[in-house]
Amino acid sequence: MEGVQEQSVPVFLSGDSSAHSSIRPAHGSDLPYIYDICLKTADAGADASRLFRDPLLIGQYYAAPYFFHDISLCFVLTEAHIPAGYIVAAADTRAFNEWMNRTWLAPLRLRYPLPYPQERTNSPTELQIISLLHQPAEEEPNQTWLSAYPAHLHIDLLSTQQGKGYGRELMKTLCASLQERNVPGVHLGVSKRNCGAVAFYKRMNFTVIQEENWGFILGKKLH
Ligand SMILES: CC(C)(COP(=O)(O)OP(=O)(O)OC[C@H]1O[C@@H](n2cnc3c(N)ncnc32)[C@H](O)[C@@H]1OP(=O)(O)O)[C@@H](O)C(=O)NCCC(=O)NCCS
Known about the structure:
Blueprint: E1 11-12, E2 21-25, H1 31-40, H2 57-62, H3 64-70, E3 74-79, E4 82-90, H4 93-111, H5 124-134, E5 151-157, H6 166-180, E6 185-191, H7 195-203, E7 207-211, E8 215-221
The chain binds coenzyme A.
Coenzyme A is lined by residues 41, 45, 155-157, 162-168, 190, 194, 196-197, 199-200, 203.
Protein backbone atom coordinates (compact mmCIF):
# COMPACT_ATOMS: atom_id res chain seq x y z
CA MET A 1 0.00 0.00 0.00
CA GLU A 2 1.27 3.50 -0.84
CA GLY A 3 2.25 5.71 2.12
CA VAL A 4 1.62 9.43 2.56
CA GLN A 5 4.63 11.41 1.32
CA GLU A 6 5.27 14.31 3.70
CA GLN A 7 8.54 15.38 2.14
CA SER A 8 8.19 15.46 -1.63
CA VAL A 9 7.61 19.24 -1.71
CA PRO A 10 8.76 22.17 0.47
CA VAL A 11 8.20 21.88 4.22
CA PHE A 12 7.85 24.83 6.58
CA LEU A 13 8.76 24.47 10.21
CA SER A 14 7.28 26.74 12.84
CA GLY A 15 9.94 25.83 15.41
CA ASP A 16 7.98 23.21 17.32
CA SER A 17 8.14 20.00 15.29
CA SER A 18 4.82 18.81 16.77
CA ALA A 19 3.08 21.81 15.21
CA HIS A 20 4.80 22.22 11.85
CA SER A 21 3.19 23.09 8.55
CA SER A 22 3.96 21.21 5.40
CA ILE A 23 2.75 20.73 1.86
CA ARG A 24 2.33 17.22 0.55
CA PRO A 25 0.43 15.28 -2.13
CA ALA A 26 -3.21 14.77 -1.17
CA HIS A 27 -4.39 11.51 0.37
CA GLY A 28 -7.92 10.08 0.42
CA SER A 29 -8.06 10.47 4.21
CA ASP A 30 -7.80 14.27 3.76
CA LEU A 31 -11.26 14.45 2.21
CA PRO A 32 -13.38 15.29 5.30
CA TYR A 33 -11.09 18.26 5.96
CA ILE A 34 -11.20 19.31 2.31
CA TYR A 35 -15.02 19.56 2.45
CA ASP A 36 -14.71 21.68 5.60
CA ILE A 37 -12.04 24.03 4.18
CA CYS A 38 -14.10 24.45 1.02
CA LEU A 39 -17.17 25.51 3.06
CA LYS A 40 -15.15 27.82 5.34
CA THR A 41 -13.77 29.76 2.35
CA ALA A 42 -16.72 29.61 -0.08
CA ASP A 43 -18.26 33.05 0.45
CA ALA A 44 -15.81 34.95 -1.79
CA GLY A 45 -12.98 33.75 0.45
CA ALA A 46 -14.91 34.00 3.75
CA ASP A 47 -16.80 31.39 5.82
CA ALA A 48 -19.97 30.28 4.02
CA SER A 49 -21.26 27.97 6.79
CA ARG A 50 -24.38 30.06 7.41
CA LEU A 51 -25.33 29.90 3.71
CA PHE A 52 -25.57 26.10 3.58
CA ARG A 53 -28.00 23.79 5.33
CA ASP A 54 -25.99 20.92 3.84
CA PRO A 55 -22.36 21.57 4.82
CA LEU A 56 -21.06 19.03 2.26
CA LEU A 57 -22.77 20.49 -0.80
CA ILE A 58 -20.20 23.06 -1.88
CA GLY A 59 -17.31 20.61 -1.57
CA GLN A 60 -19.22 18.08 -3.68
CA TYR A 61 -18.82 20.43 -6.63
CA TYR A 62 -15.67 22.46 -6.10
CA ALA A 63 -13.24 20.23 -4.20
CA ALA A 64 -13.93 16.49 -3.74
CA PRO A 65 -14.31 15.48 -7.41
CA TYR A 66 -10.69 16.44 -8.12
CA PHE A 67 -9.53 13.76 -5.65
CA PHE A 68 -11.35 11.12 -7.71
CA HIS A 69 -10.57 12.48 -11.17
CA ASP A 70 -6.79 12.83 -10.70
CA ILE A 71 -5.47 12.95 -7.13
CA SER A 72 -1.91 13.45 -8.40
CA LEU A 73 -2.90 17.08 -9.12
CA CYS A 74 -4.15 17.68 -5.56
CA PHE A 75 -1.87 18.99 -2.79
CA VAL A 76 -2.59 19.68 0.84
CA LEU A 77 -1.17 22.13 3.36
CA THR A 78 -1.12 20.54 6.82
CA GLU A 79 -0.72 22.13 10.23
CA ALA A 80 0.39 19.57 12.83
CA HIS A 81 -0.57 16.91 10.22
CA ILE A 82 -4.16 18.19 9.90
CA PRO A 83 -5.19 19.55 6.48
CA ALA A 84 -5.64 23.32 6.64
CA GLY A 85 -5.51 24.22 2.95
CA TYR A 86 -5.44 22.69 -0.50
CA ILE A 87 -4.92 23.22 -4.19
CA VAL A 88 -6.78 20.91 -6.58
CA ALA A 89 -6.68 20.86 -10.37
CA ALA A 90 -7.60 19.10 -13.57
CA ALA A 91 -5.03 19.08 -16.40
CA ASP A 92 -7.64 18.88 -19.19
CA THR A 93 -10.80 20.83 -18.38
CA ARG A 94 -12.74 19.37 -21.34
CA ALA A 95 -12.06 15.81 -20.16
CA PHE A 96 -12.80 16.78 -16.54
CA ASN A 97 -16.18 18.32 -17.47
CA GLU A 98 -17.10 15.24 -19.45
CA TRP A 99 -16.20 13.01 -16.47
CA MET A 100 -18.11 15.28 -14.07
CA ASN A 101 -21.27 15.07 -16.15
CA ARG A 102 -21.07 11.38 -16.83
CA THR A 103 -19.69 10.04 -13.55
CA TRP A 104 -19.51 12.36 -10.59
CA LEU A 105 -22.71 14.37 -10.86
CA ALA A 106 -25.10 11.50 -11.68
CA PRO A 107 -25.74 10.32 -8.08
CA LEU A 108 -25.69 13.89 -6.77
CA ARG A 109 -28.52 14.81 -9.16
CA LEU A 110 -30.62 12.07 -7.56
CA ARG A 111 -29.66 13.18 -4.06
CA TYR A 112 -30.55 16.83 -4.75
CA PRO A 113 -33.48 16.56 -7.21
CA LEU A 114 -35.03 19.57 -8.96
CA PRO A 115 -37.22 21.42 -8.21
CA TYR A 116 -35.47 21.53 -4.84
CA PRO A 117 -37.63 22.93 -2.00
CA GLN A 118 -36.33 26.37 -1.07
CA GLU A 119 -37.30 25.76 2.57
CA ARG A 120 -34.70 22.98 2.69
CA THR A 121 -31.91 25.43 1.90
CA ASN A 122 -30.33 28.24 3.92
CA SER A 123 -29.81 30.70 1.08
CA PRO A 124 -30.22 31.43 -2.64
CA THR A 125 -26.52 30.51 -2.95
CA GLU A 126 -27.26 26.96 -1.79
CA LEU A 127 -30.12 26.69 -4.30
CA GLN A 128 -27.78 27.99 -7.03
CA ILE A 129 -25.21 25.27 -6.29
CA ILE A 130 -27.95 22.62 -6.42
CA SER A 131 -28.99 23.85 -9.86
CA LEU A 132 -25.32 23.81 -10.92
CA LEU A 133 -25.27 20.05 -10.23
CA HIS A 134 -27.92 19.66 -12.92
CA GLN A 135 -26.27 21.85 -15.57
CA PRO A 136 -23.73 20.02 -17.66
CA ALA A 137 -20.47 21.99 -17.41
CA GLU A 138 -19.76 22.60 -21.07
CA GLU A 139 -17.27 24.54 -23.11
CA GLU A 140 -18.85 27.83 -24.16
CA PRO A 141 -18.31 29.29 -27.65
CA ASN A 142 -16.50 32.32 -26.19
CA GLN A 143 -13.91 30.13 -24.44
CA THR A 144 -11.48 30.44 -27.34
CA TRP A 145 -8.64 30.55 -24.80
CA LEU A 146 -9.28 27.02 -23.49
CA SER A 147 -6.69 25.32 -25.69
CA ALA A 148 -3.99 27.71 -24.45
CA TYR A 149 -5.06 27.27 -20.79
CA PRO A 150 -6.53 23.73 -20.67
CA ALA A 151 -5.95 23.09 -16.94
CA HIS A 152 -7.97 24.69 -14.15
CA LEU A 153 -7.53 24.88 -10.38
CA HIS A 154 -9.09 25.76 -7.02
CA ILE A 155 -7.04 26.90 -4.03
CA ASP A 156 -8.33 27.51 -0.48
CA LEU A 157 -6.61 28.00 2.86
CA LEU A 158 -8.27 28.32 6.25
CA SER A 159 -8.09 31.92 7.52
CA THR A 160 -5.48 30.93 10.14
CA GLN A 161 -3.09 29.89 7.36
CA GLN A 162 -3.55 32.84 5.01
CA GLY A 163 -0.90 35.52 4.40
CA LYS A 164 2.04 33.27 5.39
CA GLY A 165 3.32 32.39 1.92
CA TYR A 166 1.60 28.97 1.78
CA GLY A 167 -0.68 29.95 -1.10
CA ARG A 168 2.39 30.82 -3.18
CA GLU A 169 4.03 27.47 -2.30
CA LEU A 170 0.89 25.48 -3.14
CA MET A 171 0.67 27.31 -6.47
CA LYS A 172 4.37 26.67 -7.24
CA THR A 173 3.93 22.97 -6.40
CA LEU A 174 0.91 22.56 -8.68
CA CYS A 175 2.41 24.57 -11.56
CA ALA A 176 5.58 22.42 -11.43
CA SER A 177 3.40 19.29 -11.67
CA LEU A 178 1.47 20.68 -14.63
CA GLN A 179 4.72 21.72 -16.34
CA GLU A 180 6.10 18.19 -15.94
CA ARG A 181 3.09 17.03 -17.96
CA ASN A 182 3.69 19.71 -20.61
CA VAL A 183 0.37 21.42 -19.89
CA PRO A 184 0.66 24.82 -21.65
CA GLY A 185 -1.50 26.88 -19.28
CA VAL A 186 -3.92 26.95 -16.36
CA HIS A 187 -7.05 29.01 -15.68
CA LEU A 188 -9.44 29.67 -12.79
CA GLY A 189 -12.55 31.68 -11.97
CA VAL A 190 -12.61 34.27 -9.18
CA SER A 191 -15.44 36.42 -7.88
CA LYS A 192 -15.05 40.20 -8.25
CA ARG A 193 -16.00 40.39 -4.55
CA ASN A 194 -12.89 38.39 -3.63
CA CYS A 195 -10.40 41.26 -3.93
CA GLY A 196 -7.77 39.46 -1.82
CA ALA A 197 -7.71 36.43 -4.11
CA VAL A 198 -7.60 38.63 -7.23
CA ALA A 199 -4.55 40.43 -5.76
CA PHE A 200 -2.94 37.08 -4.92
CA TYR A 201 -3.44 35.67 -8.45
CA LYS A 202 -1.99 38.84 -10.00
CA ARG A 203 1.09 38.37 -7.78
CA MET A 204 1.25 34.81 -9.13
CA ASN A 205 1.37 36.26 -12.69
CA PHE A 206 -2.19 35.40 -13.71
CA THR A 207 -3.85 37.80 -16.15
CA VAL A 208 -7.50 38.37 -17.07
CA ILE A 209 -8.52 36.24 -20.06
CA GLN A 210 -12.28 36.75 -19.80
CA GLU A 211 -14.49 39.07 -17.78
CA GLU A 212 -17.91 37.95 -16.54
CA ASN A 213 -20.63 39.75 -14.54
CA TRP A 214 -19.74 37.66 -11.50
CA GLY A 215 -15.96 37.89 -11.79
CA PHE A 216 -12.93 37.07 -13.87
CA ILE A 217 -11.42 34.08 -15.60
CA LEU A 218 -7.69 34.42 -15.04
CA GLY A 219 -4.99 32.49 -16.87
CA LYS A 220 -1.29 31.76 -16.58
CA LYS A 221 0.96 30.33 -19.28
CA LEU A 222 3.21 27.54 -18.00
CA HIS A 223 5.73 27.30 -20.85
C1 LIG B 1 -6.16 33.60 -1.81
C2 LIG B 1 -5.22 32.67 -1.05
C3 LIG B 1 -5.16 31.31 -1.74
C4 LIG B 1 -3.80 33.29 -1.05
O1 LIG B 1 -2.93 32.47 -0.31
P1 LIG B 1 -2.01 33.11 0.85
O2 LIG B 1 -1.23 32.03 1.47
O3 LIG B 1 -2.90 33.89 1.75
O4 LIG B 1 -1.09 34.08 0.02
P2 LIG B 1 0.50 34.23 0.17
O5 LIG B 1 0.79 34.56 1.60
O6 LIG B 1 1.18 33.05 -0.40
O7 LIG B 1 0.77 35.52 -0.70
C5 LIG B 1 1.47 35.52 -1.94
C6 LIG B 1 1.47 36.91 -2.50
O8 LIG B 1 0.11 37.34 -2.76
C7 LIG B 1 -0.18 38.51 -2.03
N1 LIG B 1 -1.51 38.41 -1.43
C8 LIG B 1 -2.06 37.32 -0.85
N2 LIG B 1 -3.26 37.61 -0.34
C9 LIG B 1 -3.45 38.93 -0.59
C10 LIG B 1 -4.49 39.84 -0.26
N3 LIG B 1 -5.58 39.44 0.43
N4 LIG B 1 -4.38 41.13 -0.65
C11 LIG B 1 -3.27 41.54 -1.34
N5 LIG B 1 -2.25 40.72 -1.67
C12 LIG B 1 -2.35 39.45 -1.28
C13 LIG B 1 0.81 38.54 -0.88
O9 LIG B 1 1.04 39.85 -0.41
C14 LIG B 1 2.03 37.94 -1.51
O10 LIG B 1 2.68 38.93 -2.26
P3 LIG B 1 4.28 39.14 -2.18
O11 LIG B 1 4.85 38.08 -3.04
O12 LIG B 1 4.47 40.50 -2.71
O13 LIG B 1 4.66 38.98 -0.75
C15 LIG B 1 -5.67 32.50 0.43
O14 LIG B 1 -5.60 33.73 1.09
C16 LIG B 1 -7.06 31.90 0.58
O15 LIG B 1 -7.21 30.70 0.59
N6 LIG B 1 -8.10 32.76 0.72
C17 LIG B 1 -9.45 32.30 1.00
C18 LIG B 1 -10.01 31.40 -0.06
C19 LIG B 1 -9.99 32.04 -1.43
O16 LIG B 1 -10.35 33.19 -1.60
N7 LIG B 1 -9.59 31.23 -2.43
C20 LIG B 1 -9.57 31.65 -3.80
C21 LIG B 1 -10.90 31.44 -4.40
S1 LIG B 1 -10.92 31.88 -6.13
